[in-house]
Structures are given as C-alpha cells and as structure tokens.
Amino acid sequence: MVSEVPGPITFAGELRRRRTGEGVSLTKLAGRINYSKSHLSKIESGAKRPSVDLARRCDQELNAGGSLARLVDAPSCDPPPETATPSEVWVMRMNADGSGEFRAFDRRTVLTAAASMMSWAIIPTGGRPEAAEFALPTFRSWLDQMRLLGQGVDPSTMIHMLVGATNSVRTLAAEARGETRTSTLRLAARFAEYTGWMAQEQGDEAASWWWTQRAVELAVTGGDHELPAYALVRRAELALYRDDSRSVVALAEQAEQRASSSRVAAFAAQRAAQGYALAGDERACRRALDRAVTLVTDATGETSAEPVLGSITMRDPVAFATGWCLFDLGRPAESAEILGAELDRLPATMHRTRSRYGARLALALASSGELERACEVVRSVLDQASTVDSATVRHDLRHLSRTLRRWRTEKVVREVMPLLLDVLRSDSKPPSDYLL
C-alpha cells in the first residue's frame, strides 16, 4: 500500500481548515475583517494571493496564534552591503542650480578628482587642540536644534547641514586631546547617527546603513558602547519597514542584551515587540511590551553627559509601540483607540512624528471601516507629509491607499484619494550613491 505524501501547507488550505474548524462561515469572517465575501472566497480558493494585512486579520479572528500570518511572512533579508570603506574622504559637489551632493571616495580618487570639488579629509588639519574644547558646547547645542529642526524640514535639507557638521566635529576630535577628544568623538557619532536617520527618512536605506556604521566607528573610538547597541535597534527598524519580522526580532534582542542603559534596552524591547507582532506572535509581543514598560520606568533615573539616543518627542513611546503592534496583530480598532489618544498628546510642532503616527492611525481607522475618521486624519497627515517628505510615512500611506481602494466608490474616499496619490507620486528616491 502506497501512502499519499501530504503537500505543502498553503495559506488558502489552512484558512479554510481553520475557518471550518471554528464553525465560522465565509460571510461572517469577511464581515469581521472588513473584506468582501467574494474577495475572501478568491483567497480561500487560491485564485488570489493574500495580503499580509488580510492574513494577520484572519489569524486574529480564527485564533491561529500567528500560523496564518507566518504563511505570508516576508523572507529574511540581509543588511545592506557596505558601500564605502572607513578610510574615505568626504566630498561635496556644488551644482550650478545651487544644489549639492555629498559622496565618499578613497583618497587616491580624491587626489585625481576635478578641481571643482571641495573635500574635507579625515586627517587632522594642524589646528589647535583647544579649538575642540571651545567649540564643543556650540556643536552640542547645534545638534539639539537640528533634531528639533528635523521635525519640520525635509531630510534632504537636513542632510546637507548634518554631513558638514558631522565632519567638522570629527575633524575637531582629531585635533583634540584627552577627555575633550573623547567627548568630541562621541558627539560626532551622535551627528552621524542622526544623519543616518535622515537618510532613512529620505528613503535611502543603503545611505542610512552606511552612516549608522560610521556613527558606530566614531562611538567605539570615543569609548561609547551604547550607540553600537542602539545601532542594532536602527537596523531592526530598517527590517521592520521591509516586513522582515525574523530580522527585526533577532536584531532587537541582540540590542537589548548589549544595551548598558535602560533607555536603549527599552527601545530594543519595543522593536522586538513590533517584530513579534509582524509574525503574529501575540504572546511574545506582549512579553516584550511588558519588558519595555519596566525598562522605561527604570530609565527615568538615568543621566548621561551625551545627547540622548532615540525619540525625544513622545511622552509614552511604549503606548505608541503598543498601538503599532495591535494593528499588525489584526486588531485595528484597538490600535486606533491607542494611537488616537497618544497622537493628541504630541505637540503640534512635531510635524514628522505626528505625520508618522498619524499615517498609522489613518490606516488603523480605515482597516476598521471608520472611513470618515480615517479620511479626516489623512488630510492632516498629507499636509504635514508634504513638508517633512518622509519615506517612512509614505510606506504607511501606500498601505493606506491600497486599503482605501476597497471603498473607492464611497464619496469620502473619492475625495481624499487624489490628494493621497499626489503625495505618493511625489516620492522620488535619491540616487543610490548619494551620500556614499
């Protein structure tokens, strides 16, 4: 007797098995997840591919514990490759129209480059050692001001200022001595880390990764081992926007283990929670959020001579992370309730943060079928998004546009879609070698 070899488990087959096992009709499940019965029927028959959002919502409604979501989980991705070596010279090229771009070259290339290029080498310029001690407080204040400025200015503008400032502080560090040199190197690392964040906001993942690596090198040279742990949190965030749950969790857990401050460990735990939510593992997600709450409480007593790492605009970052996770766990209504309350607490001047979480709130509201509120929120988000030009915001806006198309015949959706598509059409990624 020949036994039949079972075929691979498919989402369509597993969905049908779990739905019938729970005694839930196709009509009832479609109503619960805010999808049409005909669309769900095509998914279950294998005629259409399931979206990640649909898989997570079905997973939640059928108590699948993440097994359905994992069947459509994105594959693990390797980090972006290194695109330059540490022994580079940074070069700024000014164009006739007033624009400019920064790149890194090896020294030999710079020596043979056109005379129209202005370069800042990493070697000491023969300046006086006391210059760093004199300039350090000003640059420290400048970084704080740039972080505030970044809340309302597009990343391209910010990057041009940040690259010059980072290299200026690094050059001062090369000339400094003793504790002043250490402090200056650490400040240069903070500038480079924020440059990496602005590169991510511009949509250039390779540049973001490159700048984060430079930040780590500067920090380690200055004896700062906290920024390298935070760099893992940043890498996990890049993976989060690729829907790569496995890499998010792995990187975040490494960061939590290596962090020496409760603040950085709290950010790592939040990122791990988001990774678990992507994978549909609610139990692990809740455990990570609980750790984050404890760590945030512990961090209130911490002090540091360095500029703080991570967001300085949110009163309760764990609440935002919880709202984010609930959406990915297939609970958009609960997500919207938390995100809406926390968004109201953000200062009106925090345009970048408000647009980022406002886009997520609009997505949660639309997924819950609250179209009027979703479109009301998205209008305010679009006003801010056009100013801050955020690639991370556009990531959720693209998701939102796909969600709203399910109700494209509704008047409120027809009115807002052209505005939404205009913002998405304005998305222009920088060239791959920009800032590299």
Q: Which SSEs are present, and which pair or pack?
A:
Layout: H1 11-21, H2 26-33, H3 37-45, H4 52-61, H5 67-70, E1 88-94, E2 100-106, H6 107-111, E3 118-120, H7 130-149, H8 155-175, H9 178-202, H10 205-221, H11 226-240, H12 245-258, H13 262-278, H14 282-299, H15 317-328, H16 332-344, H17 351-367, H18 371-388, H19 391-404, H20 411-425
Antiparallel strand pairs: 1-2, 1-3
Helix pairs in contact: 2-3, 7-8, 7-9, 8-9, 9-10, 9-11, 10-11, 11-12, 11-13, 12-13, 13-14, 13-15, 14-15, 15-16, 16-17, 17-18, 17-19, 18-20, 19-20
Count, helices: 20
Within the largest sheet, what's the order of strands? 2-1-3
Please state the average pLDDT score. Answer: 80
Order of helices and strands: HHHHHEEHEHHHHHHHHHHHHHH
- Subunit organisation of the chains: single chain
Shape: elongated
Low-confidence stretches: 1-5, 75-87, 94-100, 105-125, 428-436
Describe this structure as you would to a colleague.
- With about 425 residues, the chain is mainly alpha-helical.
- It has helices at about 10-20, 25-35, 35-45, 50-60, 65-70, 105-110, 130-150, 155-175, 180-200, 205-220, 225-240, 245-260, 260-280, 280-300, 315-330, 330-345, 350-365, 370-390, 390-405, 410-425; strands at about 90-95, 100-105, 120.
- Strands 2-1-3 form a three-stranded antiparallel sheet.
- The radius of gyration is 24 Å and the shape is elongated.
- The termini are far apart.
